[in-house]
Amino acid sequence: MHFDPRLLADARHVVVFTGAGVSAESGIATFRDKLTGLWERFDPAQLASAEGFRRDPALIWGWYEMRRAGIADARPNPAHLAIAELATRVPQLTLITQNVDDLHERAGSHDVIHLHGRLDAARCLACARSVSSALALPEGARDGKRIEPPRCAECDGPLRPGVVWFGESLPEQALSRAFLAAAECDLLLSVGTSGVVQPAALIPGVALEAGARVVHINPQVSGSGHAREFAIAGKAGEVLPRLLSEAFA
Ligand code: OAD
Predict the structure, then answer these.
(1) Is 110 a catalytic residue?
(2) 31 in ligand 1 pocket by Cβ < 6 Å?
(3) Residue 30 annotated as binding?
(4) Which CATH class is domain 1-27+75-116+169-249?
(5) If you take atom 18 of ligand 1, which residue's CA is the nearest one?
(6) What is the DSSP track for 59-96?
(7) What is the pTM of this model?
(8) Are the C-beta atoms of residues 49 and 121 closer than 8 Å to each other?
């Protein structure tokens, strides 16, 4: 069904829910796209689990440092910029992301809810102390080689990436804020996510059930066919700027 851009201009509380697809046009690989997706090329059981880290911390730390270096080299794209601008156009906007990059922040978005943690927020595997300031990228980080994780200043345990791995709980406060916003919004834009990783994948459905309109922006059209659910097929960096210029013309 066609989404009328005026519905965006009239919305009071917009939730923008993003996945890896929003950063794809910045050159950051998604997880499940054929050929280019990280989980098409790497084994998530090894690289995204606490067991994998315990087995070979240097392999895992080196892989995440390579991804962190890729993000440091990347720039926000027109989709990130359009979302930051949208926040200045509507009465209330809540930005929920599954991404572990900081491209939304670097585009000018504030108070971003990171459901899956952040690559630049390491913490100690042993005592859970977090290292708040981003660590300097070590020599060779871009090569994806093995790098021994730095040690915790408090207990000398190994630092681990500050991301949520399979089998781990999502940060409680981020999760409850996200579900509350989804239940309270009147429009939710779901941008660049395959919608398969739980519990994040429940968020568009929570908004729909609470009476909001839900718009999926993705080159792969999706949606359940609900009367208040829409799909705009295309790349986020093209669709979002166009949607904004039509809504606020
Ligand atoms: P996926 O890789 O599963 O899905 C990316 C989605 O983006 C797909 O539906 C693509 O069709 C779409 N896409 C690709 N290019 C796009 C573009 N230019 N514009 C818009 N959409 C585009 O990524 P996520 O749904 O984010 O978890 O994956 C969810 C979680 O799975 C991630 O947060 C990660 C992963 O395991 C953790 O890191 C904990």
Answers:
(1) no
(2) yes
(3) no
(4) alpha beta
(5) 235
(6) HHHHHHHHHHHHHHH----HHHHHHHHHHHHSSEEEEE
(7) 0.97
(8) no
